Amino acid sequence: MKNLLVMVLFEIKDSFRAKWFYLYFIIFFGMMAGFLWSGITESQVLGFTGLSRVLIGYIEITIVILPLFILISASRSVVMERELAILEYILSFPMSVSQYFWGKFIGRFIVIVIPIYTAFATSIAWGLIKHFSIPWNIYLTYTTLVAVLSFCFLGLSYFVSSLSQKQDTAIFTAFFIWFFFVILLDVGVLGLFLQFGIGVNLVLAFALANPLELFRIAAFSLFDPKLAVIGPVAWTLLGKIGSSGLLIFSYLYPTLLGLFICFIGFIYFKNNDYL
Amino acid sequence: MIEIENLVKNFGKGDVLKEVNLHISKGERVMIVGGNGSGKTTMLRCIVGSYRYDGDIVIMNKDARRNKSELAKYIGYVPQLPPPMSMTVKQLIEFVCDVTKGDDEPIYEVLKQLKFEDAGIDRSFKRLSGGMQKKVLMAIALGRIPDLLILDEPLAHIDPQSREIISKAVNAMPEDTTVLYTSHREEKGSIRASRLIEMDNGEIIIDKEYYNA
Question: Can you name the CATH fold of B2-83+146-209?
Answer without folding.
Answer: Rossmann fold (3.40.50)
